[in-house]
Specification:
By secondary structure, the protein is an alpha/beta fold. The protein starts with a strand and ends with a helix. The strands form three sheets. Strands 2-3-1-4-11-5-10-9 form an eight-stranded parallel beta sheet, with helices on both faces. A seven-stranded mixed beta sheet has the order 13-14-12-15-18-17-16, sandwiched between helices. The protein has a three-stranded antiparallel beta sheet with strand order 6-7-8, with no helix packed on it. The chain has two domains: 232 residues, Rossmann fold, CATH 3.40.50.10840; 186 residues, Molybdenum Cofactor Biosythetic Enzyme, Chain A (3-Layer(aba) Sandwich), CATH 3.40.980.20. It contains 16 helices and 18 strands. Helix 7 crosses helix 8 and helix 13 crosses helix 14. The mean pLDDT is 91.
Length: 434
């Protein structure tokens, strides 16, 4: 039986959610004819998506359709139940959520995260904005079948549901997953059955999903698909990926763009980072070896509870940048050789971490010299290029060498805006089912 069940109010929405799930390498099956339901496909698919064609019909009929489908697909093996709703809150949101809750039982809570950041649908302060415009001032207000006259997400639900509602706002999201999980349990004890979340970014969805998982409650995701895809990655392992995967970031770039990108990543995601003292890498062979060992051991000793770890040359901070010409003059070596001490040391750190912990299945490297040094240390023949993540950032797999098949994203140190590194890591997470 599938571990994810999505009930959507229309076919296009069902397929849109299926595509999001497919990006994370789940097998998704949209049911088009319930009378010809293929039970083999049900067992072979990670996710079953069932459209009820109920957006523009009477709320009581919509309730019955969702209730019957939920009863049909309810199973102890399901880890994620999802009520796919319209990204502009049109349709029978309340009655269909009620139906899902009634079918599953009194111990289930609806987690409503109705934002879709990539489509510029966000919820802030309880209000939905579409391309920065309040929802009730958009075309959704004049929809001939399902007009939406308010931008308040809570008001839309309150007009349709029979159950108590609570809200968590941006301030709550900023306090992290522990705060969110505590509030969820608190609301559940008070009898709340629907919790509506603010969310303005993919990072918000990730924190909300982590909070829901940590709370340990039984839940139904109520959203346009992005939250369902996010929480599915945390709870469901695709058929062809049974290990817990991790991502390693190696950055040797020493410019303001790279620093802005790192700062943004640390604000957005939970990363265990170790800064490499680059001065130690050029002082002597012994000190270089000691620094390499220190960094590797810190990562290995602390990576257990982190999905993403990073090793970053401390020269990314202006006060730590070395005068390579001075070292070159002191050692009577070309400046390029001094630079290579640093690049090759970062490559060695990367190599040892991957050797010592096989859970690292994804690598992000920033700076062309660093990527070359890593490829040489890994004895890689080349990179099979598969996609462009953002402009000037490429996704692919190493060919040959000791880590053939390793998923890798490479980017120039000055390429992209401040969000680019964060986007690259999210991309790798989707590829690695994290």
């Amino acid at each position: 039986m599938a571990q994810c069940v999505v009930i959507a109010d229309d076919l296009t929405g069902a397929n849109a959610t299926g595509v999001l799930l497919k990006k994370s390498n789940y097998n998704a099956y949209t049911v088009l004819n319930s009378e010809r339901l293929d039970l083999k496909l049900l067992s072979d698919s990670n996710c079953i998506i069932y459209p009820t064609d109920s957006r523009a019909i009477d709320p009581s009929i919509a309730y019955n359709r969702v209730y019957n489908v939920a009863k049909l697909l309810k199973n102890k093996d399901v880890k994620v139940y999802s009520k796919r709703i319209d990204s502009t809150l049109r349709g029978n949101l309340g009655s269909e959520t009620d139906a899902f809750l009634d079918a599953l039982g009194n111990d289930f809570t609806a987690i409503a995260a109705p934002c879709f950041p990539e489509a510029n649908r966000i919820v802030s302060g309880g209000y939905m904005l579409v391309n920065t415009v309040p929802l009730h001032k958009t075309a959704a207000a004049s929809d001939p079948k399902n007009p939406v006259k308010t931008s308040s997400v809570r008001e839309v639900f309150e007009q349709q549901t029979k159950y108590p509602i609570a809200s968590l706002y941006i301030g709550d999201i900023m306090k992290g997953k522990e705060h969110i999980s505590g509030k969820i349990r608190e609301f559940q004890q008070e009898g709340v059955r629907i919790i509506i979340f603010d969310c303005i970014s993919r990072d918000d969805l990730d924190v909300i999903a982590s909070g829901v998982v940590e709370s340990g409650i039984n839940f139904v995701a109520v959203d346009p698909g992005t939250f369902t895809a996010t929480i599915s990655r945390k709870l469901i392992t695709p058929n062809k990926a049974k290990n817990k995967n991790k991502i390693l970031i190696t950055i040797g770039s020493v410019n303001e763009v790279a620093k802005l990108q790192v700062d943004e990543l640390f604000l957005a995601q939970d990363v265990f980072n170790v800064y490499v003292d680059t001065k130690e890498l050029v002082e002597s062979t012994d000190r270089r070896t000691q620094e390499i060992n220190r960094v590797v051991n810190e990562i290995i000793d602390n990576c257990k509870n982190y999905e993403v770890c990073s090793v970053i040359g401390n020269g990314i901070m202006p006060e730590n940048r070395l005068d390579l010409d001075r070292y070159a003059e002191h050692y009577n070596l070309p400046t390029e050789d001094i630079s290579n001490f640093i690049n090759n040391s970062l490559a060695e750190i990367t190599y040892q971490i991957l050797v010592k912990n096989s859970d690292f299945k994804g690598l992000y490297s920033s700076g062309g010299d660093i990527t070359v040094a890593i490829s040489k240390r890994f004895q890689t023949y080349g990179i099979r290029l598969l996609d462009e993540v953002v402009p000037l950032a490429s996704y692919g797999e190493f060919i040959g060498g000791e880590f053939s098949g390793l998923n890798v994203v490479t980017k120039g140190g000055m390429a992209g805006d401040k969000f680019s590194l964060n986007q690259c890591i999210h991309y790798l997470k989707e590829k690695l089912f994290i």
